Amino acid sequence: MEDLSKLKDLSELETEAKEVLDIINDQILEEDDPTLVKCESSSIGDGCGQALEITDLVYIQTHYYVPPNDSEEGDYWSAGEGRFICSSCGCINRLYNRPSIEGRKKLFKSVKNEYKA
Questions:
Q1: Calpha distance 10→116 (Å, rounded)
Q2: C-alpha pair distances (Å), 12 with each of 19, 20, 26, 41, 97
Q3: How far apart are CA 90 and CA 32, in angstroms?
Q4: Are 49 and 40 in contact (CB under 8 A)?
Q5: How does DSSP classify residue 109?
Q6: Would you list the domain boundaries of the chain?
Q7: pLDDT tens, 51-83?
Q8: Which contacts qualify for 1-8: CB closer than 8 Å, 24 or more apart?
């Protein structure tokens, strides 16, 4: 029984290690060639994993409305996360956890601002 438990632990560690390696490989790809970005899975959808030319994609900058509060501050729009839609599979890719891509916003084909109240 103890051996079975050890095998299960090793299997879980192997799965976690593979996930970490995938993330590292994606980061290496995106850092080695600043014109490529990878479509990845997220809470929004399952990405296809394809490396895409950043110059062919539209950067979507989200903005959220912040109503006035009791202090002297009035209402305003706050910048949210950046996103892009994969041209291959249509998956929405969130960029909040990918600062190397956020920093390349100017390389995208265009920037689209989305405002959500």
A1: 45
A2: 11, 12, 21, 20, 24
A3: 25
A4: yes
A5: S
A6: 2-116
A7: 899 899 999 999 999 888 877 778 889 988 889
A8: none
